[in-house]
Amino acid sequence: MAIPSYAGPLERIWYYLYRFICAAIFFFLIVPIIVIIPLSFNAEPYFTFTPEMLRLEPEAFSLRWYADIVNNEQWLHSIKNSFIVGIASTLVATTLGTLAALGLSRAELPAKSLLMGILISPMIVPLIITAAAMFFFYSAPFGTDYALAQTYTGVILAHAALGTPFVVITVTATLVGFDKNLIRASNSMGADMPTTFFKVIMPLILPGVISGALFAFVTSFDEVVVVLFMAGFEQRTIPRQMWAGIREQISPTILAVATLLIIVSTMLLATIEILRRRNERMRGVTY
Amino acid sequence: MANAVEEAGPARSLTMADGTPLKVALARATRRSKIRAFLLVAPLLFFILITFIFPIVDMLLRSVDNPEVNDAIPATVVELEKWDGESYPPDSVLSVFLEEIGDRSEEQRRNTGRMGARLNYEDGGFRSLINKSQRAAPKILESPMQFALIGLDEAWEDKDTWSALDGLAEQPDFADILPKTAALLQKWETGNSPFAEKTPGAEVYTEIFQEIAAAAQDGRIGALTAVIGRAHADVADLVQRTADSAGDIAEHPLKYALIGVDKEWGEVETWKTIQLVSSPVTFSYYLNAVDRTYDADGNIVMQPEWKQIYVQLFLKTIYVSIGVTIACLILAYPISYLLATLPPSKGNLLLILVLLPFWTSLLVRTTSWIVLLQTQGVINDTLVFLGIIADDNRIEMIYNMTGTIIAMTHILLPFMVLPMYSVMKTISPSYMRAARSLGANPLVAFVRVYMPQTIPGIGAGSILVFILAIGYYITPALVGGQDGQLISNFIAYHMQKSLNWGLAAALGTILLAGVLAMYWLYDRLVGIDNMKLG
Questions:
Q1: Is B94 inside a domain boundary?
Q2: Dist CA A163 CA A167 (whole Å)
Q3: Do B214 and B267 share a structural domain?
Q4: Chains A & B: contacts with CB separation below 8 Å
Q5: How many structural domains comprise chain B?
Q6: Which end of chain B is more exposed for a tag (fewer CB within 10 A), N or C?
Q7: CATH number of A75-250
Q8: β-sheet bridge partners, residue A42
Q9: Min CA distance, A98 vs chain B (Å)?
Q10: Can you count the helices (H) and strands (E) in chain A?
Q11: CA of B45 vs chain A CAs: smallest distance (Å)
């Protein structure tokens, strides 16, 4: 929206003022994320820029907080846990979610909106309620003594449940533009169900499945409330460790971890964007 | 079926190769494809029902579940049902009660402890009352008189009373009326040694009561009080009072014994409360969650002033959520408009500035706000450096409500921008041009032509942000300090610290009902199918 040539002086002032306001809002959005990165290289254990840092003196910067992560058993353990739980729960969520999305996109499915409501409910219920409920249930499922709380299985199942709605929604959205005649064509040429699924359906919906899986992974990777209630010390994930760090002894190591997480989220964002564009291209949608 | 169709009309119906009518075959095929579609959904449905829906329902039921009193004293509850609820419960009820709570098995002790905790929610003194009574119960059942006399008058517990009586035990007048008591007292080791017992054993209480009661019957009580009164007027008075009540005590020893354990047992209200809490289903957690409670008669009354926090808290949560939603709306509108109207190459680049925060971990963003806002943080340092504020006058921006609102607005802003952006993108610029060419000035054109078309985006974004804000836990817990705590934080508090799970469940159910109502609205306005991610 370039400024039109017929604009009066008042309109011109407004135009530049508006641009300034937008810049300020974008600044508000991005600065909290950017500011953490240089601070994580602080040589001093402060959460603010030292005068030396502002003068860009090399001694003011160090990698000591990154070294801290590498040398800290707890941080390493939590990083490992985050990936174990994240990947396992993503596998469960993606498999079940993709199958369900295939079913949900069929016109014949009875009681569709009720089913959809149930399947995406983990996304709607406030996390604190989910966490409390899961704490009770997983401590003594169906009144048995087989406690799943404070086990990897319990945390993985809980995170898988939280991740499935995202898979269902993204894959269902991908299937909206899916041409059903391709399945009929495949069947008429003698392919059986598995062949049709892996050779025809899967390649077409793969972008949606992958972005759903990424959403599920991020949900687990970033989740702390359920972990707070349900996981034991052994299952501490990165967010849980950060939570403890912020509440108990806040140290700049957290800023180093945060910087690493920002890098992870940038990579995820890039992947999602690429997939989204590919999907749009394949569906022939052009913006 | 095939015959039915043939008989119904003269025309021959269409059939499949195997002779089944087309209609039947079609119905069969449709049913089969319905089942096939459902089978695809079934695994996830089963998974979500087991791992998610069932736990939620189970927790919600805890808000009305009330097993504690019934688990601990089932027989007493049955007895209390026959009680009229007006007079003091008869000793038959009390003996059942004492037998139940006096059982030393581990399970019973655990159940009794839970009952004490449950009753404590109704009235603050119950936990210690039940604990004391649990310890005393076996002794009361064995010989109730010690507690019963103390229940009549605490002076029976005093060392002075007993040393006075002990001093009289040698006197023939005294020993004549209370022979067994005198004999026992003479054997009693008293004295000033710190190990000496303050009061004699239970058997002395039993004897002295029986002998005083007997003396009261045959009229020798006057002589006895005269003997005692010569040296100790107060003890004589005590004996007289005991003699006066002897009949009542003999009839209700357990009632007096329980009063001897704690005066609270003397109140009929105490029993009414137990009876009230003994029902297997209760609404008292819900009443609690809205600052109300039952009085002893079962009427709903307001909580005492200092306990009235939850209505205030719900209102605060709603106000904060509305505030955050409005802040997000004001910030999101201009940049969504900019993103939607810029050429795609520039627009997509700026969109990254919205998507990056969206994809960044919640804890990372909360940490950044702590770093920025704390008193020794970046913003305060900058303001001091610029000379805007004095070094000793730094602004408190975090660990209070301000911090909560700033951080929540930042975290939820992308959820407002994305739906608005996708709506604004579909609005054709021709409408604005048409309005301008018809003579509207830019402001009128924007307000009357453009803005009405963005209402679906405003609605979708606002409801989404409001739903997310109202259940927020992490950010208030980390940056909220004292006054920035919202309803979720109190649910967590009752789950983890106070262990009042029924109240946590009731607060959670109310919150969930609110969220589901908002979600229903969202579904009506936007539709779940149109929910877009990223």
A1: yes
A2: 7
A3: yes
A4: 258
A5: 3
A6: N
A7: 1.10.3720.10
A8: A61
A9: 9
A10: 14, 0
A11: 6
* Domain containing residue B231: 69-282
Q: Are residues B221 and B361 in the same domain?
A: no
Hey, which residues 163-222 in chain A have their CB within 8 Å of chain B? 164, 166, 168-170, 172-173, 211, 215, 218, 221-222
pLDDT in tens, B460-488: 889 889 999 999 999 999 988 888 889 99
- By CB neighbour count within 10 A (0-12 exposed, 13-18 middle, 19+ buried), where does B186 fall? exposed
| Residue reference for tokens 């829906």 | B53
Judge if B97 and B182 occupy the same domain. Answer: yes
The ipTM estimated for the assembled molecules is 0.89
Do the domain assignments include residue B199?
Answer: yes
| A126 band by pLDDT with thresholds 50, 70 and 90 | very high
Q: State chain A's mean pLDDT as an integer.
A: 88
Among A18, A47, A34, residue whose Cα is nearest residue A253: A47
DSSP B455-489: HHHHHHHHHHHHHHHHT--HHHHHH-TTTT--HHH
pLDDT value of residue B534? 41
Which chain A residues have a beta carbon less than 8 Å from that of B334? 18, 21-22, 25
Q: Domain limits of chain A?
A: 1-34, 75-250
Mean pLDDT score, B13-20: 79
- Is B297 part of any domain? no
Q: Tell me the shortest Cα–Cα distance from A110 to chain B, in angstroms.
A: 7
**How near does any CA of chain A get to the CA of B302, in Å?**
27
A106 chain-B contacts, CB cut-off 8 A: 33, 36-37, 40
My answer on whether B42 and B7 are in the same domain is: yes
B324 and B246 together in one domain: no
B472 contacts in A (CB within 8 Å)?
126
Q: Does A255 touch chain B (CB under 8 A)?
A: yes
| Chain B residues 50-69 within an 8 A CB cutoff of chain A | 51-56, 58-59, 62
